[in-house]
Amino acid sequence: MSASEVQPPQSYRKEEVQEILHLAIARKTEVEELSRSQLWEIAAELDIDSDVLQVAEKDWLLQKQRQEKKDEFNQYRQGQLKRKVIRYAIINSFAMLLNFLAAGNLSWSLYILLFLGLPLTLDTFKTFQTEGEEYEKSFQQWYLKKEIKASISSVWNRIKTAWLS
Known about the structure:
By secondary structure, this protein is mainly alpha-helical. Helix content is 80%, strand content 0%. It is built from five helices and no strands. It has helices at residues 14-28, 36-45, 50-103, 108-128, 133-164. 1% of the residues are buried. The mean pLDDT is 87.
């Protein structure tokens, strides 16, 4: 069946319209980006109200900003996990070396390896779990802490500047 034999349907769902328009815009433009004025022109041609487009643009910017913060949070959590893995490796290497030198085999150090490995495994799972209520709660706590630190730092810098001048 060739492309000329395919009959388009009489109506489309919203998702299908978005996909078709996305493909058409991608084929129409040679460059990877469209200017903001081009976005407004396209919206006008599609008979999209400017107020609706403005609200949609603000929503998109907020979503993008939130995703950047979540990416930063995920990097922070992965850094924390990396430090825990390094600490785990150092402690268990020392325990295994001590056990091997003292007894000539590995006996009690394996219990330490397992005992400390369970929380590390749970932390690893938690680090890479990026959805759900617990993740959102952790993200909110981290973000609040970060905002409070930034506020305190800002106030402290103002106090120092006022004091020095």
